[in-house]
Amino acid sequence: MPRAILVDPTVPGCLALGDTELRPAAPNEAVVRVRATSLNRGEVRAAQGAPAGTRLGWDVAGVVETAAVNGTGPAAGTRVVGLLRAEAWAELAVVPVANLATLPDEVSFEQAATLPVAGLTALYALDRAPGLVGRSVLVAGASGGVGHHAVQIAVAAGAEVTGLVRQEAHAALIRDTGAAHVVVDGGGAAAAEFAPYDVVLDGVGGDVWAAALGMMAYRGTIVTYGGGMGASAVPFDAVALLGKQLTASGLIVFEETLRETAAAGLQRLVRLAASGRLTPLISLQADWTDIGSVTQQLLDRGFPGKAVLTLS
Ligand SMILES: NC(=O)c1ccc[n+]([C@@H]2O[C@H](COP(=O)([O-])OP(=O)(O)OC[C@H]3O[C@@H](n4cnc5c(N)ncnc54)[C@H](OP(=O)(O)O)[C@@H]3O)[C@@H](O)[C@H]2O)c1
Which of 190, 222, 184 is nearest to 203 (CA)? Predict the structure, then answer.
């Protein structure tokens, strides 16, 4: 019987290893032996209120154990990375081939495990503002899993990137990514120094979103993908918008895969990672048996970048 991480409200972090059933694969699904997965803030938060036995997990990196029976997708034995809406935290995962990209040897399973949710969110947010060459981009929450990817992808696309972080200790990490500027300010107002911004990516919300909105260039684009880190309803001076013609939108990564398959998006990210233009920041790597402690550290924001679990 394969093991998986299950919600267990009686333990710290509400997640623990347990036995589970492997659901039968549909004709367009492959079975993947998972070698690494990662934790995202959203799924860890969801675990805190979910019923016992719930199976979560979005990010899969591993090897195809059984190819899809309809003959599509990667063959058995292929290294892959994939996106799931649930049940990725398991020894075996059933993944639609439309969500699976092949993984070259240059990209480790651990690096790949950071790409599905965090990498795709960054990539798809930047897709909302095509033509980044020479544009100024502000990434708010640059030290987070999504933000760290976003800074690097925007740099690779030719933008002049400003990373906004709230902890001085995380500033150097963002400078190392090739960002032109790093601003340390939990409220975001200090990012005005390098405004106006053609594009803002915001994973923080609240005061940071309101501050950034006032720093936009004419016809700028602001994309929100996160929030809830502080107050979500904040005052905003609408006069700052006069004459601006901004585009403001919110993004949910799973909905974006209706526009482009996760397989295609992941293949783009894998290409960047294989060529060294995207280096995931893995601050915490642990065996999946340590799930309780890793969960707590993520909830406490005890590290920048990503936490990756390996399956022994
Ligand atoms: N819509 C979607 O599909 C989607 C997809 C992925 C993520 N998300 C959401 O996007 C957000 C970021 O995701 P993530 O995975 O990057 O999370 P993460 O790794 O936990 O990073 C959170 C980021 O927000 C910063 N932050 C936290 N509290 C803050 C505050 N009070 N003021 C200023 N900055 C603050 C953190 O800075 P420090 O490093 O200083 O703590 C860090 O840069 C989360 O809310 C997540 O749920 C949404």
Answer: 222
